[in-house]
Write a structure and sequence with these properties.
Length: 349
């Protein structure tokens, strides 16, 4: 009996050792919920909110160009000069005429004062006084009209030097010294580049889902969101030719990462909610169904439990779990193809 009992004890120890050796080491992570977005990706065109096309307000030949393409200028900096000599001559003529009219007005004033004294003394008739008053009033009106014309010509003279209306970067300068320009000629462009707008055209059937404040993510070259903004404008009508609806979203560009007229990928986020997200390596598929394993128990006493789950979109390398898993469960992420339901495992964080 003693020998038999001793033999059974050894057999029991062997069985326990075998069971201990069958426990499979796996890595686990705790299932956690995080914000998940329902979104659609579109192409958008960036347009500047502070870009200006510079055109002259006068006609003439270009005599000087003070800037070059790509140069950053301050507000009021001279851009180019149009030959001002004809305008200067016109101004000089008007100023000379103004002096002549001033002299005439002064003579008429003296004559008026003289006739007022004579009229008061009863020497001349009232008609003579009225004639002197009329001559003085007429000459004064001529002087005032010339002064108004001179002020206008001086303002006009300022237009012959085209200046920057704001601080920014000079674009292409398609004109050259000697070119004759008119008020419709494009001289150059000026763009501060600090504030842009993304123009996003979405299909008309999505119009009912749009709203002001809708989140929009600007995607970088690495496929990740480089900036998050919100819709600030929704067109009141659909484009009849393309059947698309225009949305606008402001973009901060103080660091100059983006350029005017650049085409970028944007992600319009329709809804956001919290949902469990798991690595794709933790998912297995069998007969069209999707499964995942969770570790139940603690330490060496844990076992793998297979769960049928439903997954949604793939975000990067992670699946969004629609059902079957709850936050807080310990998800097995390695060797899932080698596991079976109820198999002993050794969880490793």
């Amino acid at each position: 009996m003693i020998w038999i009992v001793s033999g059974c004890g050894k057999q029991s120890e062997n069985v326990n050792a075998a069971e201990g050796s069958s426990a499979f080491p796996v890595k686990v992570v705790t299932v956690a919920a995080r914000p998940v977005a329902e979104s659609t990706e579109y192409l958008a065109t960036l347009k500047s909110r502070n870009a200006a096309s510079l055109q002259p307000q006068v006609e003439g030949d270009i005599t000087k160009i003070f800037v070059h393409s790509g140069q950053v200028v301050e507000v009021g900096a001279p851009i180019l000069e149009i030959d001002p000599r004809k305008q200067e001559a016109t101004l000089n003529n008007q100023e000379a005429a103004h002096k002549s009219k001033l002299a005439t007005m002064e003579l008429n004033r003296i004559e008026l004062e003289r006739r007022q004294k004579l009229y008061s003394a009863g020497v001349i008739a009232k008609a003579d006084l009225d004639a002197a008053q009329g001559a003085y009033d007429s000459s004064r009106a001529d002087v005032e009209a010339l002064e108004a014309g001179i002020r206008e010509q001086r303002v006009q003279l300022h237009y012959y030097t085209v200046k920057a209306p704001a601080a920014g970067m000079i674009g292409d300068v398609p004109v050259h010294v000697g070119d004759r320009v008119s008020t419709t000629t494009l001289l150059t462009t000026l763009d501060s580049g600090a504030s842009l707008e993304a123009y996003v055209n979405i299909p008309a059937e999505k119009a009912s889902s749009t709203r002001l404040g809708l989140p929009v993510e600007i995607m970088g070259d690495d496929g990740k969101a480089a900036q998050r903004t919100r819709v600030s404008f929704i067109s009141p009508q659909v484009d009849s030719s393309s059947q698309t609806l225009l949305l606008k979203a402001p973009i901060a560009n103080a660091e100059g990462k983006f350029r005017t007229a650049q085409t970028v990928h944007v992600r319009v986020i329709w809804t956001e909610r919290n949902a469990p997200v798991i690595p794709m390596t933790a998912v297995s598929r069998l007969s069209g169904k999707v499964f995942a394993f969770v570790a139940e128990g603690d330490g060496n006493q844990a076992v793998a439990r297979q769960k049928a789950i439903q997954v949604g979109d793939l975000i990067g390398n992670d699946y969004v779990v629609l059902s079957g898993l709850q936050p807080g469960e310990r998800l097995i992420t390695t060797s899932v193809q080698m596991l079976a339901d109820g198999m002993r495992v050794v969880p490793q964080s």
